[in-house]
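Researcher: We plan to redesign the surface later, but first we want a full-length starting point. Tokens attached.
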């Protein structure tokens, strides 16, 4: 309790009123965003259930897939060449397999 008071006093001394106002505003906006997300999820689930689909999970929002690593044009070109070579080898093996069985 005493440490919290000291930390609060130190924060008041070292930050301006404007900065504290901004921090408070950001915290309030984050809370509002979370509330709106929950409302949107509830509305979406309601529509999904009415349509005969399973609703989304209530607790956690859907996780997005990680962004793929950006590649340079040289890396893309090299990967295309490697894939083309592999495809050519597959076709040759398939052709050899067909000729061996004939």
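Model: Full-length starting sequence:
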């Amino acid at each position: 309790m005493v440490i919290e008071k000291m930390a609060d006093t130190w924060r008041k001394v070292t930050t301006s009123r404007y900065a504290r106002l901004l921090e408070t505003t950001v915290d309030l906006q984050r809370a509002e965003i979370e509330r709106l997300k929950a409302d949107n999820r509830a509305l979406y689930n309601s529509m999904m259930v009415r349509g005969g689909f399973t609703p989304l999970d209530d607790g956690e929002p859907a996780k997005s897939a990680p962004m793929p690593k950006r590649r340079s044009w040289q890396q893309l070109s090299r990967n295309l060449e490697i894939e083309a070579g592999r495809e050519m080898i597959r076709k040759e093996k398939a052709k050899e397999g067909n000729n061996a069985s004939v």
